[in-house]
């Protein structure tokens, strides 16, 4: 099936083709007709599935099919996303796909001056992409008019829950017209997302694409077991020995990201860190240099990496395993996209064996493991407490969190020892069986009570 067959205008098909896309992805082939039908939509989709085009293209089609009346400057589409980087990426997609149309767009997020945003809003835009915190700033200053919103998109709703934005979203919802189209995209569906969906969606079309566990098939995963004080030396060895370029490295904390980037620099590897304490200018610079290939290594925390979308990113390294198994899948999903193969390497010390066991149980597979000659590994070493990054608890009130996080040699096979029980172990993730866990299926969210691509734009 082609994009034209989905009912998109020639101007949109032309822009998509120029980006090298000839056939829609599974979520695009399902979401585009559903959004064009005009009803609400709930989609279970991971990053890297093409979901952004899945909602931006039909939204653009609707806007060019129903032009704004002369003189009207009200926002017609509101897209809410969790991070600054993702906001910038989504708005860039709107501009790229809408380059041959008259549709206007704007992105607003925190960490930068609000005054240029106020000026742009005065001129009026069709599509506004925003993070919840900065949008509430504009609402408080009465610099944004949401009375004309026809379509609302919540992208990565589960991440917004995790970052404590659900309360902010509810504040925004009451300010929107009651008659509107609602599109909700989420990788998982915790209870609070289900409650939000129940309150805002009207008989939604339901879409579910392949689970993240299935999409990892093109990603070569490997574990290197190593003592904690040998991790940096091993990472440097891997990068230099294999001449790796464009390596996205994940750490658990902001301080750890800074320290590792500095250490890699001393090893002769160009590296920068991206996290919430970095200025917007520093994050933008780091992302730009990394995407262009001028920067060899980008060291990131989980939330800061949201919105990083690089075609054919070859290498992802877990310098430290995440506390939450699903974050591992999000991390490695940055590579192996769009049918390309990718490599995900994890450096695991004895402290992290419990986390590794949780990840393998979540993925229902054992990840190949080995040690590297010349790098010490003592499986009997005493585990140390895991320095906490993102924990499994979700949905904390925003006032208890920051307003926003940004929005950048031969081997020898060995068997992994069974993780020993320890009081120092990280919080245990929810087991995959015999107990409730976030559901990935949109149908599971509403118990199959949704509709399948029927109806029109309801008012």
Topology summary:
Layout: H1 10-18, H2 26-36, E1 41-44, H3 51-65, E2 77-80, H4 84-97, E3 105-108, H5 115-123, E4 127-130, H6 132-140, E5 151-154, H7 157-162, H8 166-173, E6 181-186, H9 191-200, E7 205-208, H10 212-215, E8 219-225, H11 231-241, E9 247-250, H12 254-266, E10 271-274, H13 280-292, E11 297-300, E12 315-318, H14 325-332, E13 342-348, H15 353-363, E14 369-372, E15 411-413, H16 442-446
Parallel strand pairs: 1-6, 1-7, 2-4, 2-5, 3-4, 5-6, 8-13, 8-14, 9-11, 9-12, 10-11, 12-13
Antiparallel strand pairs: 14-15
Helix pairs in contact: 2-3, 3-4, 6-8, 14-15
Structural class: alpha/beta
Unreliable segments of 5+ consecutive residues: 211-215, 391-415, 420-459
> Largest sheet, described in full?
8 strands, mixed
Query: Helix fraction?
Result: 25-40%
Q: In total, how many domains does the architecture comprise?
A: 2
At the third CATH level, what is the topology name of the largest domain?
Rossmann fold
- Strand numbers in spatial order across the main sheet: 10-11-9-12-13-8-14-15
C-alpha Rg, in Å? Answer: 22 Å
Number of helices: 16
Number of DSSP strand runs: 15
Brief summary of the model shown:
With 459 residues, the chain is α/β, with parallel strands linked by helices. Helices cover 34% and strands 15% of the residues. The chain folds into two domains: 4-211 and 440-446, Rossmann fold (3-Layer(aba) Sandwich); 214-413, Rossmann fold, CATH 3.40.50.
Would you write up a description of this structure?
The chain has 16 helices and 15 strands. With 459 residues, the chain is α/β, with parallel strands linked by helices. It folds into two domains: 215 residues, P-loop containing nucleotide triphosphate hydrolases (Rossmann fold), CATH 3.40.50; 200 residues, 3-Layer(aba) Sandwich (Rossmann fold). The strands form two sheets. Strands 10-11-9-12-13-8-14-15 form an eight-stranded mixed beta sheet, sandwiched between helices. The chain has a seven-stranded parallel beta sheet with strand order 3-4-2-5-6-1-7, with helices on both faces. α2 packs parallel to α3. The longest helix has 15 residues. The radius of gyration is 22 Å and the shape is elongated. The two termini are 31 Å apart. The C terminus is likely disordered.
């Amino acid at each position: 099936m082609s994009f034209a067959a989905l009912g998109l205008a020639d101007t949109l098909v032309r822009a998509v083709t120029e980006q090298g896309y000839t056939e829609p992805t599974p979520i695009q082939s399902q979401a585009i007709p559903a959004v064009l039908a005009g009803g609400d939509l709930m989609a279970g989709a991971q990053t890297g599935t093409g979901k952004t085009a899945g909602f931006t293209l039909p939204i653009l089609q609707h806007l060019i099919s129903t032009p704004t009346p002369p003189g009207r400057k009200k926002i017609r589409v509101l897209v809410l996303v969790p991070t600054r980087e993702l906001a910038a990426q989504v708005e860039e997609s709107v501009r790229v796909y809408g380059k041959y149309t008259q549709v206007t767009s704007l992105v607003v997020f925190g960490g930068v001056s609000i005054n240029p945003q106020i000026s742009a809003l005065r001129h009026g835009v069709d599509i506004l992409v925003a993070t919840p915190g900065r949008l509430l700033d504009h609402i408080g200053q009465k610099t944004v008019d949401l009375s004309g919103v026809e379509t609302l998109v919540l992208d990565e709703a589960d991440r917004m829950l995790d970052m404590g934005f659900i309360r902010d979203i509810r504040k925004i919802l009451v300010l929107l017209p009651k008659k509107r189209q609602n599109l909700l995209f989420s990788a998982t569906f915790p209870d609070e997302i289900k409650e939000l969906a129940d309150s805002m969606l009207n008989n939604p079309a339901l879409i579910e694409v392949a689970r993240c566990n299935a999409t990892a098939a093109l990603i070569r995963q490997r574990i290197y077991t190593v003592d904690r004080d040998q991790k940096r030396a091993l990472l440097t060895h891997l990068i230099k020995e294999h001449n790796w370029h464009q390596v996205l490295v994940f750490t658990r904390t902001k301080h750890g990201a800074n320290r590792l980037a500095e250490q890699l620099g001393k090893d002769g590897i160009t590296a920068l860190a991206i996290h919430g304490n970095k200025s917007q200018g520093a994050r933008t610079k780091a992302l730009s240099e990394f995407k262009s290939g001028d920067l060899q290594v980008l060291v990131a925390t989980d939330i800061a990496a949201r919105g990083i979308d690089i075609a054919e990113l070859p290498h992802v390294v877990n310098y430290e395993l995440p506390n939450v198994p699903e974050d591992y899948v999000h991390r490695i999903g940055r590579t192996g996209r769009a049918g390309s193969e990718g490599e995900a390497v994890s450096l695991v010390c004895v402290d992290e064996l419990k986390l590794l066991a949780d990840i393998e149980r979540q993925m229902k597979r054992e990840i190949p493991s080995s040690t590297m000659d010349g790098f010490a590994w003592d499986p009997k070493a005493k585990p140390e407490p895991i320095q906490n990054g993102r924990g499994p608890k979700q949905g904390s009130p925003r006032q208890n969190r920051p307003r926003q996080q940004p929005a950048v040699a031969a081997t020898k096979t060995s068997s992994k020892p069974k993780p020993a029980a320890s009081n120092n172990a990280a919080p245990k993730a929810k087991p995959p069986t015999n107990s409730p866990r976030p559901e990935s299926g949109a149908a599971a969210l509403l118990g199959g009570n949704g509709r399948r691509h029927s109806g029109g734009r309801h008012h």
